[in-house]
Amino acid sequence: MRATARTLALVLALGALSLGTAACGADVAEDPKGRSGEAVTLTNCGRKVTFDKVPERVVTNDVGITEIMFALGLADRMAGFAMPDDKGDLAGVPWRDGYDKAKWLSKKKLNKELVLDARADFVFAGWNYGFDEGEGFTPAVLGKLGIDSYVLTESCRNGGESSRGKTRGVMPPLDALYTDLRNLGKLFGVEERAEALIKKFRAQVAEAEAAVPEDRERPRVFLYDDGRDKPFTSGRYAGPHSIITKAGGDHVMKDLMDSWTTVGWETVVARDPDVIVINDYGDVGAEQKKRFLTSYGPLKNVSAVKHDRIFVLDYADLVESPRNPAAIVELARYLRGLRR
């Protein structure tokens, strides 16, 4: 998964979040004092994991994971991050200074050599967000090197039968975000900061939900990531499910017990979404994706295409990240404006 540009509306929303977070305490973006050195045990992907010390040289993979660290004020604990160079204009991101403090290690995903070169003592990544058995880069491999790790909760494997037991997702997407904030807050001794963020995010989401019209049917929404022969999309356990649902939409792929996965176009046509949300990132941008969707023959009678109801959100909105609540606000505003 990769990062991309921000829209003006999200920049404004994130600016408001910055002010709101600062209201919880002016030191939110400052260096944390941290906790004392006693061991901490956390539950990560259903396993109890004990960390004997506070990590001092953290390496992260991808934008959402990196910005979780920044939002917690932990940039000073980082040895660096791996991320593509399409993360866009960050001027309005509340934790923008984190990018100035932390070292950009690679424009590709993490690997063992990068981690060793950075002298990391902790890796925060996820399955398909850096961790990859085929590449020999896993928590188990790192453990043998004396390097601790934490797996992004959105990416936790749930033991499903598809993809040889590698389906992902163990809890609702926003709960995954709050779980990671709370766990990392405990590990790094910034629990008050984590709880302040969670409180702010919950209030932001609740306000968006409260504005959802009760007198009309929820619009059916499909998330389009990429893919021509088959679309890559979001199941129940990836960020778009919570974003669509909390914003007042009916997520048409909510029955897929996975996070990010592939379906057939015939399934999309049968479920006839009223709105398609495009995930904007990578070499094939949102405009190219929209041109494909509007010119692809099998979709010509799908409601979203017929009525030109195609909405764009950025990658960093849609993967697990502290940008998720602002994305809910943005999509909710769009859905409320639809004429039925």
UniProtKB/TrEMBL annotation:
<feature type="domain" description="Fe/B12 periplasmic-binding">
    <location>
        <begin position="57"/>
        <end position="340"/>
    </location>
</feature>
<keyword id="KW-0732">Signal</keyword>
<feature type="signal peptide">
    <location>
        <begin position="1"/>
        <end position="25"/>
    </location>
</feature>
<comment type="similarity">
    <text>Belongs to the bacterial solute-binding protein 8 family.</text>
</comment>
<dbReference type="Pfam" id="PF01497">
    <property type="entry name" value="Peripla_BP_2"/>
</dbReference>
<protein>
    <submittedName>
        <fullName>Iron transporter</fullName>
    </submittedName>
</protein>
<dbReference type="InterPro" id="IPR002491">
    <property type="entry name" value="ABC_transptr_periplasmic_BD"/>
</dbReference>
<dbReference type="InterPro" id="IPR050902">
    <property type="entry name" value="ABC_Transporter_SBP"/>
</dbReference>
